[in-house]
Prior knowledge:
Blueprint: H1 2-6, H2 10-26, H3 31-36, H4 49-89, H5 116-126, H6 131-138, H7 142-152
Helix pairs in contact: 5-6, 5-7, 6-7
Amino acid sequence: xxxxxxxxxxxxxxxxxxxxxxxxxxxxxxxxxxxxxxxxxxxxxxxxxxxxxxxxxxxxxxxxxxxxxxxxxxxxxxxxxxxxxxxxxxxxxxxxxxxxxxxxxxxxxxxxxxxxxxxxxxxxxxxxxxxxxxxxxxxxxxxxxxxxxxxxxxxx
Length: 156
């Protein structure tokens, strides 16, 4: 039957079909019964509880992802509408305050920066840096850093 169905030559198909009919008649079957005979249906494999749990979790993750994407798209749409409304009302066209440029000789100083003596004290207490490096970092004289270290010693 497979040869009759799969051959590309007419004569070969006819010969294979005739041989299949003879074989079926010899065993007292029709051609359709012979075609079904010997083929067992594929066994249906049941899903294990672990596989079901994995499938359900994957489906839940996919659903959560789709919901997250839908929510993000709604947020983007609301933002676009609000932005277009703001532009239409002219809110984006307001004159912005001109940025103040520093004048000549102006040096930006961080408000978080410690005074050199405090900075050296912290470095002496919390690191093992050499005196020369602490002096270089803080801008103090090396002898001032050594004096700080001596003053930080505990009295005996």
